[in-house]
Specification:
There is one protein chain. This protein has 445 residues and is mostly beta strands. It folds into two domains: 167 residues, no CATH class; 167 residues, 3 Solenoid (Pectate Lyase C-like). It is built from two helices and 42 strands. The strands form four sheets. The chain has a 14-stranded parallel beta sheet, with helices on one face. A 14-stranded parallel beta sheet has the order 2-4-7-10-13-16-21-24-27-30-33-36-39-42, with no helix packed on it. Strands 5-8-11-14-19-22-25-28-31-34-37-40 form a twelve-stranded parallel beta sheet. α1 crosses α2. It is elongated and about 75 Å long. The termini are far apart.
């Protein structure tokens, strides 16, 4: 069977002379010729089939890498703005640069499995998009090898940078990666990524390794050498507006379950965040982000963190259970609301006795001792939640007041368990208003 010619992507960083520029022009001419040849062979098709680019007798078990051939198919699809159909076989990727995706392309990957080589030693990803628009990733499984890659080798599933627009990621499975399953990084507040949907996707055992704050002598504290904070979070969104994360499972992260940094107008709904080594749902310097109907359970540090100048963020109807530290820590934030949630037996880990180490209330509102945003705590509401608090926790709700902590309303909550205390500390107790909170019967069985 005749095959479309293979294409080799040039290294754009080496275009320092006219000869290299001529090579670039020849490359794009080859792309155009290949696109025309493919269109002539498949005049009625709206799709590009990856298998049409594979050599005769190709294997389907992932024992041979066809990474350049798959990249050729993606390049032709990008030029023609066609869908790309991946046959339900195993694709072995031996180069950390992964597969580059162009704007206007839908990747149809149901049944396809992408296996990353255990010999990878460079940072990279499976799919890379730089400033792409109108892209959809549908189905497929990505399998990393974080148990074989050296510490500090950071490999993502989907990595999107620049002013990304209109991206949909759905029905995917990703596991055993050493960085995010999905990492979307807008450049800055003036050049945000926008309109991202991540739905019905499972991300398991991914991210960098992050040692606990209270790790013992000689043990890892913080991120492993060679990684940084962008490698934390099964899903990590930086400078992203108008996003939806819905119906996903984020499990057994080796650092945080999620990380949303300087994001706006987002929805995080109907997800499960379980068994992360560190935090579960982590919102930093965000505005107007809603978290609703999620199960956030058995994460190693705080179940929920809303911090560092976050504003108008809402936590509604969630179950937050079995966190290593607080169920909710909300320092240095304003106009935030936590209502109709279940906070069940959080604060499992022992901590120190100094003020900044008192982490084991079900909910804590205070000023952090480290706050780059230098933000006050203003007008936050904790209402109509159910707290089940153990005897080893300091309180169901703890507020440490100061001149900068004011306008805290704690109303209509039901307090159960062995510790039914709302603890108001500091020099300004009048900054906290307690209304209609109900004490349950202590269980003495």
């Amino acid at each position: 069977m005749n095959r479309v010619p293979l294409l080799l992507m040039p290294d754009y960083r080496r275009f320092h002379d006219l000869r290299a520029m001529a090579g670039l022009l020849l490359f794009f001419a080859a792309i155009a010729g290949t696109r025309a040849a493919y269109a002539n062979k498949h005049p009625d098709s709206a799709c590009v089939s990856v298998t049409d680019f594979l050599p005769d007798g190709y294997v389907v078990d992932g024992s041979v890498s066809y990474q350049s051939e798959v990249q050729a198919a993606l390049a032709v699809a990008g030029e023609a703005r066609r869908n790309v159909v991946f046959a339900p076989i195993k694709y072995f990727l031996d180069d950390a640069k992964g597969l580059s995706v162009s704007s206007g392309v839908t990747l149809l990957m149901n049944g396809a499995t992408f296996i990353l080589s255990p010999d990878i030693r460079d940072d990279g990803q499976t799919f890379l998009g730089e400033g792409v628009r109108d892209v959809c990733f549908c189905g497929g499984t990505i399998i990393g090898q974080n148990h074989q890659w050296p510490a500090g080798t950071n490999v993502r599933g989907i990595h999107l940078t620049g002013r990304t627009r209109q991206v949909r990621i759905k029905n995917m499975v990703m596991r055993d990666l050493s960085s995010n399953g999905v990492g979307v990084f807008g450049p800055d507040a003036a050049n945000v990524a926008r309109d991202l949907w991540l739905v019905d996707t499972t991300i398991n055992n991914c991210c960098n390794v992050y040692g606990d704050y209270q790790a013992g002598p000689g043990e890892l504290r913080g991120p492993e050498k060679g990684s940084d904070r962008k490698d934390q979070g099964s899903v990590a969104l930086y400078f992203v507006e108008d996003f939806v994360v819905r119906g996903c499972r984020f499990e057994a992260s080796r650092s945080d379950g999620t990380h949303f940094f300087r994001c706006r107008n987002g929805q995080f709904t109907d997800n499960r965040v379980c068994r992360a080594a560190m935090g579960g749902y982590f919102v930093e310097t965000c505005e107007h982000v809603l978290a609703a109907n999620n199960v956030i359970r058995n994460n190693g540090s705080r179940g929920v963190t809303i911090e560092r100048g976050s504003r108008a963020c809402t936590l509604v109807g969630n179950t937050v259970e079995g966190s290593g530290r607080e169920g909710l820590w909300m320092p240095d934030s304003s106009n935030c609301v936590a209502t109709n949630n279940l906070f069940l037996r959080n604060g499992r880990k022992d901590n120190g006795q100094s003020p900044h180490q008192i982490w084991d209330a079900n909910v804590t509102i205070n000023e952090s001792n480290v706050d780059p945003s230098n933000s006050p705590v203003r007008n936050c509401v904790i209402s109509h939640n159910v707290f089940d608090t153990g005897k080893d926790q300091i309180a169901a709700v703890r507020v440490h007041t100061s001149e900068s902590v004011r306008g805290i309303f704690i109303q209509g909550n039901v307090l159960l368990g062995e510790n039914q205390r709302i603890l108001v500390e500091g020099r300004f107790p009048e900054h906290v208003r307690l209304v209609g909170n109900l004490l349950g019967k202590v269980n003495r069985d």
